[in-house]
Amino acid sequence: MKKALLFSASCAVLGLASASAPAQTLDYATFQDMFGEPVTTSANGSPQRLSEVPLNMEILTAEEIARTGARTVPEALRFLPGLTVRQSSFGQTEVSIRGYNQPSAERLLVLVNGRQVYTDFFGMVVWDNIPVEMAEIKQIEVIKGPNTALFGFNATSGVVNIITYNPLYDDVREVTARIGGFEEGPFYEGSGVATAKLGDAWAAKVALGGYEADEEFANTFPAFLDATPKRASGSVDIWGQVTDTIQVNFEMTSNQNDRLEGIALRIPSRTEFDASSLRGRIIADTDWGLIEGDVYHNRSVAGYFLYAQSPVAIPNELENSITVAKLTNTFEVGNNHIFRIGGEYRSADNIMKALDTDELTYTIGSVMGLWDWRATDKLRTSVALRYDHF
């Protein structure tokens, strides 16, 4: 049995600060146009302008991402200070904050709209497994420093939260196609994102994407001659405004990718990933605050074909799944104090099929709290506390 207690505190001197009242899901585009800068809810659960957030945060907006020409999230992150991006093969990229980059970098928690895509038992983020196309990203938020305590023990160096367009507010229709080539062969990539209103109260977003590429690494080992890096991904995101104060969300994703690695498990390998997720959320703006319930299940299967100095690849399959249930409440006391309290339960398991081992499992119960205080018009401080029982 293990217990973890995480604490963080920060303060900032602000030229202009205002304690924002809780709201339902944020219409990022409207607020950004209104204030002329990005807006986030990651700091304390309520909308805040980037300039008034009392923590170390960077935000890449959709417009900035488009100007970079990046075709993947790691490529876009190269443009942020303090982040190190390392690409060792076409489908394998590692991202770290403030150095310490290495194969299977394990100290960075990555989220999509608050849902974890960091794979616990693999101890890494498989970036090509993230079921997000570049055209559906509204902004990418990067949180550095001790404030990541609120996100849990697996956010040691920082948090990357990828925010996608919400079909209730955003109208997106975009198709992208790329054709290129290497010395060894061609590269093909395509994606499509579309939103649609489903009556007065419902809306949906569908995103599809994939690529296939030849790579010189594929011809290095005989066992890999039939493999080329490729990816296929799809997601469906449905939102409903069921009452004036209640929203619901259902999300389904699926992703497959095949990549060649020089250092997976410290020896050359070809890896096939198959990942999927299901999620349901309810957000209610009540007299007691903004209450959010969130339940999701992630499943990832990794098939490793290890070269191991043999003309025949050695297969090994690992299956990892995690179920998370969270409940949070964000509320104001007076005009200068915002509180956020919540609890979380997570259950994970992992099976290594080649070794026929017993299932490895763990459960974690967590409680968390945050106090955001606007001491004066120019001084704001934030204190976060989280306790994990493992």
How are the SSEs ordered, and which strands pair?
Layout: E1 3-13, H1 28-35, E2 39-40, E3 48-49, E4 56-61, H2 62-68, H3 73-77, E5 83-89, E6 92-97, E7 108-112, E8 115-116, E9 137-144, E10 158-164, E11 173-181, E12 186-198, E13 202-213, E14 230-241, E15 246-261, E16 269-286, E17 289-306, E18 314-333, E19 337-352, E20 360-374, E21 379-389
Explain what the structure shows.
By secondary structure, the chain is mainly β. Helix content is about 5%, strand content about 55%. It is built from three helices and 21 strands. It has helices at about 30-35, 60-70, 75; strands spanning about 5-15, 40, 50, 55-60, 85-90, 90-95, 110, 115, 135-145, 160-165, 175-180, 185-200, 200-215, 230-240, 245-260, 270-285, 290-305, 315-335, 335-350, 360-375, 380-390. Strands 1-21-20-19-18-17-16-15-14-13-12-11 form a twelve-stranded antiparallel sheet, with no helix packed on it. Strands 4-9-10-7-8 form a five-stranded mixed sheet. Strands 2-3 form a two-stranded antiparallel sheet. A hairpin with a 4-residue loop joins strand 20 and strand 21. It is globular and about 65 Å long. The model is unreliable at about 10-25 (pLDDT under 50).
